[in-house]
Amino acid sequence: MFQKLLIAAAIKAIMAALCQIYGFCLDQDECPDGVCDEALQAIESLDEAPQPTVTKPMAFDFDIQWDKLQPLVAATVELINALKAFLGLNKVG
User: Do the Cβ atoms of 21 and 76 come closer than 8 Å?
Assistant: First the structure.
């Protein structure tokens, strides 16, 4: 049960953080039109995805798909590097 609640909370936290980032961009006059649309649609799709439900006490039967971890790690690194570049954090000196 705790795992499922933790996963649901993590998804909500990720959605909130990503909405802050892309919402900030949309609020800026210099943000190109439509540049964030695909990202915001993907974020919204997290809310539409089936969430793990708690059907019985102490249910630890959630099946994590560990074979999907490496692409997730690579995408996360790419996202962080892109964010650093976007925010100008890659500049030396």
Answer: no
Cα 89-91-93 angle, rounded to 5 deg: 115
**pTM attached to this predicted model:** 0.62
Tally of residues, the chain: 93
For 7, 38, 59, 72, the CA distances from 63, given in Å and listed in that order, are: 12, 29, 11, 16
In whole angstroms, give the CA distance from residue 37 to residue 22.
Answer: 9
| Interval 60-84: pLDDT, tens | 556 778 888 899 889 989 988 888 8
